[in-house]
Amino acid sequence: MFDLSEKKINDSQLKAQTLDPSSGGFVCFEGWVRDNNQGKDVHKLAYEAYPKLAIKEGNKIIAEAIEKYDIKKALCTHRVGLLEIGDMAVWVGVSAAHRDAAFKACRYILDEVKSRVPIWKNESWTDGESGWVEQES
Amino acid sequence: MFDLSEKKINDSQLKAQTLDPSSGGFVCFEGWVRDNNQGKDVHKLAYEAYPKLAIKEGNKIIAEAIEKYDIKKALCTHRVGLLEIGDMAVWVGVSAAHRDAAFKACRYILDEVKSRVPIWKNESWTDGESGWVEQES
Amino acid sequence: MIKIQVLFFGKLKESWGTNKLEVETGSHNIEDLYLELLNKAANIPHKESIKVAINDEFVNWDTTINSGDTIAFLPPASGG
Amino acid sequence: MIKIQVLFFGKLKESWGTNKLEVETGSHNIEDLYLELLNKAANIPHKESIKVAINDEFVNWDTTINSGDTIAFLPPASGG
To answer: What is the per-residue pLDDT across A51-109, written as a single tens digit (0 to 9) for each?
Structure first.
């Protein structure tokens, strides 16, 4: 399941929902707000989403991952609103019987979410400026 | 750092040690004792290690990962002794500025630990039998 | 003439100086509407990078628009 | 003749029925020692899959053994 969260992401809870007693492998990715990005010192950061479409597209990506790879459960939550340095921006977790499927599905969900889910990052820099950030390659 | 643990793996503590304020990406893998393996119902499981050589080889693998990929920190702990169903057998975590390096390094450490670190799995099955388990491909 | 609502996201809000417009238009599809809206834009965004949606579904540029539709213009995603 | 200690791990403990042997041997390298020890083994493990170590370091089969060495025979790892 894909979700957006206006509050701090509760990764322990997400992990507990993703673990599966018959799955030996669990892979997760966490994206954190860094104190720097593309050479600029980041002060704070906001994510804006198109919520309805984001949730629809995010769940479509998770369904694709379950279809493509032999995995049991996959969850992804993306933070929206104002974030501070050290906050978690995105969490992706996958349970699978085998590690190969778990790694590939986690990577697939992350990559597709970053490129397809309508969410935009606006950074404020320590020089007082701010701006919309283009996707990193 | 690579370590062996005779007690339950404390993944929160390991994660806290792996996170890095300048790294936006964190990937971890957890291997759990499943209730079945290769078609048999598993009752319990023991890992035996050659401790000195295991720690030496595990740390060599982590040094290789830091050399090969652009990552900040990497930790791996493998449980030894008697484990119950639902116990964590292995934890690998990697922090990096970019997701690609984090995913690749985590996978590298896991694969190399499984194939090179002198640790052996002995399973007890619900039919009362037990045996040393060959590596899964 | 039909009445529609237009939503702008991310940096496109800066191009049009708003996140929402109520528009009366004679345009029949999204591409025509976009060209019509360009004269209200402070700068001209790179069209190839923009995705479009009608009523919370991604659609193509040649999709017909109807009265009451909510049309969204979305710059490239930058989440994660 | 030299005195050495031999360690067996994993399923090799079952082949030799012990995890440790004190051995007096005339063998000069690990391969010779292994062949000598085979007549104490209940079943003959697949040599190609075995790794060998001397004094907590992986070494080759043709490595010379010295008095006081601890030699280990290791079946394929199965951790994780």
So the answer is: 999 999 999 999 999 999 999 999 999 999 999 989 999 999 999 999 999 999 999 99
Alpha-carbon separation of residue B17 from A41, A69, B12, B14, D80 (angstroms): 24, 31, 9, 5, 21
Nearest beta carbon to residue D80 from set B113, B122, B131:
B113
- Tell me the residue range of the domain where B58 lies: 2-33+51-119
Instruction: Look up the CATH number of domain D2-74.
Output: 3.10.20.30
Please give the Cα distance from B12 to D79 (Å, whole number).
22
What ipTM is given for this predicted complex? 0.91
Chains D and C touch (3+ CB pairs under 8 A): no
Q: Where residue A58 sits, what CATH number does that domain have?
A: 3.90.1170.40
* C-beta atoms of B29 and A110 within 8 A: no
pLDDT one-digit tens code per residue, B79-136: 999 999 899 999 999 999 999 999 999 999 999 999 999 999 998 777 777 788 876 5
**Is residue A16 one of the residues assigned to a domain?**
yes
Number of domains in chain A: 1
In a domain, B46, yes or no: no
| Beta-carbon separation of A35 and B21 below 8 A | yes
Q: With the C-alpha atoms ordered C27, C31, C35, C37, is the resulting torsion angle positive or negative?
A: positive
Closest CA to A2 of A71, A83, A104, A73: A73
In a domain, residue B82? The reply is yes
